[in-house]
């Protein structure tokens, strides 16, 4: 990618894109952001909505997204405490990117070979009736 300048400060777009990619890198961050783009979630709801993620990993990913200003964590002073997660206005700017990815997947997703998940928490088998 070509280096570009902005005024007197030199900006290396490759480095800037690497910084942008690092905000959403990791196995779970994009999925978390996709879900939070749809609505506000409580921690337990997020964990159930993402098969394979552990409680520890969800906590770590949410903390990183919050530190980067992409997720807002709201704690309600109730007993038991209630915590909700939502994306910030800055993260809403990623909406067109998520829509473009969804459109791409709708067009080409069936051509991508399915790979079995080899990491994370396994889904529990259904209980016999």
From TrEMBL:
PROSITE patterns linked: HTH_HXLR
Molecular function terms from GO: DNA binding
Name of the protein in its database record: Transcriptional regulator
Keyword DNA-binding: yes
Statement: the UniProt record of this protein carries the keyword Transcription: yes
Species per Swiss-Prot/TrEMBL record: Duganella radicis
Positions of the HTH hxlR-type domain: 15-113
Alphabetized InterPro entries for the sequence: HTH_HxlR (IPR002577), WH-like_DNA-bd_sf (IPR036388), WH_DNA-bd_sf (IPR036390)
Keywords: DNA-binding, Transcription, Transcription regulation
Transmembrane segments: none
